[in-house]
Structure formats: structure tokens, C-alpha cells
Amino acid sequence: MKAKNSRKILEFLLIAGVVSIAATSPYFLHHLAKIILKMRQYKLSDKQKFNSAFNYLKKNGLIKIEKDGYDIKIFLTPRGEKRIKKYKIDDLKIIEPNKWDGKWRIVIFDISNNQRVERNAFRKKLKELGFYSLQKSVWLHSFDCKKEIGILREFFGLNLKQIIVFLVDKIEDDLLVKKIKAVYKI
Predict the structure, then answer these.
(1) E strands, the chain, in order
(2) pLDDT class for 148, splitting at 50, 70, 90?
(3) Distance in angstroms (rounded) separating the CA atoms of residues 139 and 132
(4) CA contacts within 13 A on the Cβ side of 42
(5) β-pairing, 132-135 with 163-168?
(6) Cα 97 off chain centre by
(7) Contact by Cβ (8 Å): 58, 3
(8) Residue 99 — very low, low, confident or very high, per pLDDT cuts 50/70/90?
(9) Residue of 166, 134, 133, 136 lying closest to 149 (CA atoms)
């Protein structure tokens, strides 16, 4: 539950930017928890879990708290931003429409050897997203994935020269097409 609350806090701070709360209130964490967790009824056990998650984030340098006059400002650290981006990558999915548009998406990448970790992680994520490997650096998908590839490109710090997405009407090899269609059930 701490991980779930920690994630909610990070996501909220990513969207809100900086949260400023009157430091004079001894219940500032309680009020913040109600806002972030969007709960009208707030039990003691919820408060303890939220406080635990909040302290975990603070202790691990994912959020920073600064006093500003009579206010307390809470914001994400660069490390916290990186963690929330990882959550976004972990949740990434390609939406499959009801009907296939008849086009193939081919992702070709050329990621240098000094970025081996990024290359291997990118390849692993393509596999998780349901891409079909034509070659080590050439992957195919039957549904729109431009947005998802853009998110991966940004996350791994890669550019348009390193990852290219093609939209293709036909693939030359009919046997390969039949095999791929069977994989995607289209």
C-alpha cells in the first residue's frame, strides 16, 4: 500500500508542480492526503499509510520540502521525476482498435554500443508492447504506436536519428505476413 500511496503522491506532484501549504496548520499532511487521495472519508489507518509513504519519499530524495515564510512547499526532485517517468513506462500499452487499418508500423533503431543498456531496455519494452521482431533492430506492430515510441524515445534519451517509425501498406513476403497476422489475430 505504501508503494501505491507513494506513486499517487509523485503523480500528483508531477501534475501540480509545487504544492504550497500553510505551515501553521498541524494537520497539513492530513489535508494534503485528502487532496491527493481524493477521499472524503479518511481513516486513521489511511493517515498512517500516507504519512509512511510521504516519509519514504522524503527520506529517499524523491520529494523535497522547503519552508517559505509561513508556507511549506513540496515538490519533486529530479530523482522523483525520473521515478514517475519509470512508472509511466511500466504502464505503457498500445491500444488495439476494434478494426485493423491494414497498415504496418515498422520501428527501426540504431542505438550505439556505448548506450547498450538503453538499447537492450528499449528492445525489451518493444517485446512487452507486443512488437514482432523482424531483425534485432527492426520491429513490427500492426497498430498505431507513434505516441508510445515517442514516450520511449524521450525516456531513454534517444533521438529521431536513433529510432525511426515507418508506416507501411505492404510487406513483400506473404508467408511472413500470414505468420504476423496470426500473432496479432487480424
Answers:
(1) 18-22, 63-68, 71-76, 104-109, 132-135, 138-141, 163-168
(2) very high
(3) 5
(4) 18
(5) unpaired
(6) 21
(7) no
(8) very high
(9) 166
